[in-house]
């Protein structure tokens, strides 16, 4: 079942992210399904920490980007969504290639939304699991 309350596409997500942390880190939106968004981040000089691994904070940026976008487009027109809480468990380091993420809703309510995000390396191995809670703000 399609959950989106607003028009959504890879092109719209990409356009809305120009000149933001998302574009500066090289995050690319890949796919929008009926109940998910998929994106990826490169493991390169912009995104690694001193040990050569994808920086954990960059994994959280990808997770928050996915969950926040999901919440925003699943909200009724005029509503705003803002993050309340995010957590991330880093399970496996990545030193090259891409890390891809997918988000799906756990709960879409009137006042809050909860989104689960899984990040995987090019081999399909789970590198990070995250969950974000978003507040739904009524139109002004």
TrEMBL record:
The keyword Nucleotidyltransferase does not apply. Keywords: Hydrolase. It comes from the Bacteria. The keyword Metal-binding does not apply. InterPro entries: HotDog_dom_sf, PAAI_dom, Thioestr_dom. GO terms for cellular component: cytosol. One of its GO terms (molecular function) is 1,4-dihydroxy-2-naphthoyl-CoA thioesterase activity. Its EC number is 3.1.2.-. It is an enzyme of class 3 (hydrolase). Residues 51-128 form the Thioesterase domain. NCBIfam families: unchar_dom_1 (TIGR00369). Belongs to the thioesterase PaaI family. PANTHER family: 1,4-DIHYDROXY-2-NAPHTHOYL-COA THIOESTERASE 1. This is Esterase. The lineage of its organism: Bacteria, Pseudomonadati, Pseudomonadota, Betaproteobacteria, Burkholderiales.
């Amino acid at each position: 079942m399609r959950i989106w309350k607003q028009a959504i596409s890879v092109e719209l997500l990409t356009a809305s992210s120009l000149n933001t942390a998302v574009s500066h880190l090289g995050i690319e939106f890949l796919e929008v399904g009926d109940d998910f968004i998929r994106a990826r981040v490169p493991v390169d000089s912009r995104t690694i920490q001193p040990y050569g691994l994808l920086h954990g904070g960059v994994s959280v940026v990808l997770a928050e980007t996915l969950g926040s976008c999901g919440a925003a487009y699943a909200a009724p027109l005029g509503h705003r969504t803002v993050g309340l809480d995010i957590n991330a468990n880093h399970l496996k380091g990545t030193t090259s290639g891409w890390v891809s993420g997918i988000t799906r809703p756990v709960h879409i309510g009137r006042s809050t939304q909860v989104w689960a995000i899984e990040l995987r390396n090019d081999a399909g191995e789970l590198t990070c699991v995250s969950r974000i809670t978003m507040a739904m703000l009524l139109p002004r």
